[in-house]
Design brief:
The chain has about 210 residues and is α/β, with parallel strands linked by helices. It is built from 5 helices and 9 strands. Helix content is about 30%, strand content about 25%. The longest helix is centred in the middle third of the chain and has 18 residues, at about 70-85.
């Protein structure tokens, strides 16, 4: 079984059968401020609903963003901890790829998610659903310019705005990659900007 976790937008947790790529249990919320409160209960609930024990989990799929620092790190930490405790591989994927795979129409299109601070994250996908540009970060007023600089023809593509990431789609994508031997994403969070909280500098010297 594959356990998939994403907190790059809302919070989404799913248990996926790697043989079929179908979800056995899912939990999600679009609330973008309660990741730490809900991810633990969601994990317990999907395991219980699917009648699966942690020992049955053979891989943990982690949505690596893009996402704001505060929320994204909760899901990644949960995924890494579960994988380490079970001694199973961590399978990192770009979160926007799940949104693209969840569309019921072919591309091309640009996936957008809220980055807060009046900014958006974006990724562009071609007719086959393959990511061809991004993830990137831009203010809405500068979005066209940012997309054009990376993939000029994508500036006119349809826009798909997602409020949460379907974790079960991440699990399905991971199952496909495991079956085909396709590499996974880097195990590096896609914050795309510095965290809101920074370490203080050295204290100032006080003259006598």
């Amino acid at each position: 079984m594959l356990l998939a976790i994403d907190t790059s937008a809302g919070t989404s947790v799913a248990l996926v059968d790697p043989a079929t790529g179908r979800p056995l249990a899912t939990r999600s919320t679009e609330d973008s401020r309660r990741h730490a409160e809900v991810v633990g209960p969601f994990l317990a609930e999907v395991l219980a609903e699917a009648d699966v024990t942690p020992a049955d989990v053979t891989g943990v799929v982690a949505g690596m963003g893009p996402g704001p620092f505060t929320g994204l790190r909760v899901g990644i930490a949960a995924a890494r901890t579960f994988a380490a405790a079970r001694g199973v591989p961590l399978l990192p994927l770009v979160s926007h790829d799940a949104v693209a795979a969840d569309q019921d129409r072919p591309g091309p299109f640009v996936v957008l998610t809220d980055a807060r601070r009046r900014e958006v994250y974006w990724s562009a996908y071609d007719q086959t659903g393959t990511r061809v540009a991004g993830p990137g970060l831009a203010k809405p007023a500068d979005l066209d310019e940012a997309i054009r600089a990376s993939r000029p023809d994508a500036v006119d593509w349809d826009r798909v705005t997602a409020r949460s990431i379907p974790a079960w789609r991440l699990g399905a994508l991971a199952a496909d990659r495991l079956a085909s031997g396709t590499p996974f994403a880097d195990d590096t969070p896609r914050y795309l900007r510095d965290p809101d909280v920074t370490m203080p500098g050295a204290p100032k010297r006080v003259k006598q």
